[in-house]
């Protein structure tokens, strides 16, 4: 089987810890060249992983090496520049989130990718975890019922200061943290909602935000996120119109509770609860979804299999973040005005 020739741009912590090792473990791709502005880092990665070609310039790498895929993990503005150049050179693009800084940039990449007929992907690893796989299989069963309510709590310890040389903690928070749970929630709403309410704290150190979504069918979605936790917290609860519920904690722990549940668990007892935990022997990059999402993207290129996070798929997330950002600005202005009157 042909292996895709991959070029890597950006050798920071995320690439080194999660993405590059996941590519090395894949049966569908091999790393042909790497690119970074840091000479010592390039040399270290080259020696550690026996990679033949190294570059300081992504343009030189793309122009000199026959690549099938570019994987980018850097600042959002760099993502946009490299992705744009690669698309115009007829190379498939996978970008770690956030793919761009602005909705305008994202729309330009969507337009170019459609025009050039180039496959694109965005690294949204939480959607490719064990818990996500299990919960979707359960919900597809007729016994679970229709979605009635979903609640997500996604809290981290950062950003306390702006990322990527930006001047706004809130912009950094939206692109670095909120993008994950927001994407997850919007997919349960089929990317459409009738009403969105935003509540935020007056302080950005730490910063909290509560989002309330309502769909035309009356489905309620609640999303709590913030930057205060001493450790990462990610919890999801999904409740159906039959009273069945799925609770997800720590990405790979799933609890199913029901007044009466049968297939696919062959349980007919009343008020049962079933806990599913991934085996500790099955550890690795798939625990947090990285290897799974990259393999699916590679199969998307090789065999035209479905992949759920193209640039186009991310557009509803970005337009919703624009709405959230505007509501946050309005609330902070109102809070400052009230404080001045006291």
Please write out the topology.
Elements lengths: L3 E6 L3 H13 L3 E7 L3 H11 L3 E3 L2 H7 L4 E4 L3 H13 L3 E5 L6 H14 L3 E4 L6 H11 L6 E9 L13 H20 L6 E6 L7 E7 L5 E7 L6 E8 L4 E5 L3 E8 L9 E8 L12 H14 L11 H27 L1
Parallel strand pairs: 1-2, 1-4, 2-3, 4-5, 5-6, 7-10
Antiparallel strand pairs: 7-11, 8-9, 9-10, 11-12, 12-13, 13-14
Helix pairs in contact: 1-8, 4-5, 7-9
Commentary on this structure:
- The protein has 342 residues and is an alpha/beta fold.
- It has two domains: 4-126 and 301-310, 3-Layer(aba) Sandwich (Rossmann fold), CATH 3.40.50; 127-280 and 317-331, Dihydrodipicolinate Reductase, domain 2 (2-Layer Sandwich), CATH 3.30.360.
- Helices cover 38% and strands 25% of the residues.
- It has nine helices and 14 strands.
- The protein has an eight-stranded mixed beta sheet with strand order 8-9-10-7-11-12-13-14. The chain has a six-stranded parallel beta sheet with strand order 3-2-1-4-5-6, sandwiched between helices.
- A hairpin with a 7-residue loop joins strand 8 (195-200) and strand 9 (208-214).
- Helix 1 (13-25) packs across helix 8 (290-303) and helix 7 packs across helix 9.
- The protein starts with a strand and ends with a helix.
- Residues 263-271 have low confidence and may be disordered.
